[in-house]
Amino acid sequence: MAYGARMWPVTLESGDLVLRPLRQRDKAEWMALRRRNADWLKAWEATQPDPSGPLPSYRSMVSSLNAQARAGQSMPWVIAIREPRAARPVMAGQLTVSGILWGSALTASLGYWVDREQAGRGLAPTAVALATDHCFGALGLHRMEINIRPENAASLRVVEKLGFRDEGLRRAYLHIDGRWADHRTFALTAEEVPEGLMARWRGSL
């Protein structure tokens, strides 16, 4: 089974969409994208319960994520798209597979955000399908979970399009925008998509 250094880094592609590792040299582009989307993401982003606690720097965040990736616990990807006049794929968001459990669980959680200017292009469901197929196929994971605020209509449409099952409400699951917030849990197992999630997504278009 692939894990640790053998599973990371990895780049995945589907058409014009690229999932590639988040890097230290992405700081300027990542920070600019986050500033532009601050209001768009504020209602859905996790916050620290202790407001006096220091926020991690970009460098420490990437170092921590990459350490988790090398340990086989996480896969932090940039969502990028190829544009006709761009020298390289342009950053359009982020997708992270986290909380990877091996052994008898073989499960992980998935979270993502997409640039507001790119919303509606199918980037989120394509990225989720691509990452899920990699987890089920290359890594041999069995279950993928996505937790979404009940008010987040855009993300609810993503899991609906991909056929994730609604497993119910988790009360006060994460600290979001200054308070503990409920989330709905959606999940999918490898047996439910023997043809692959990307094939299901493409077949629905």
UniProtKB/TrEMBL annotation:
Enzyme class: transferase
Domain N-acetyltransferase: 17-191
Keyword annotations of the record: Acyltransferase, Transferase
Position of the signal peptide: none
One protein family per Pfam: Acetyltransf_3
Origin: domain of life: Bacteria
EC number annotated for this UniProt entry: 2.3.-.-
Keyword Transferase appears in the UniProt entry: yes
GO molecular function: acyltransferase activity
Family: Belongs to the acetyltransferase family. RimJ subfamily.
Protein name, as recorded: GNAT family N-acetyltransferase
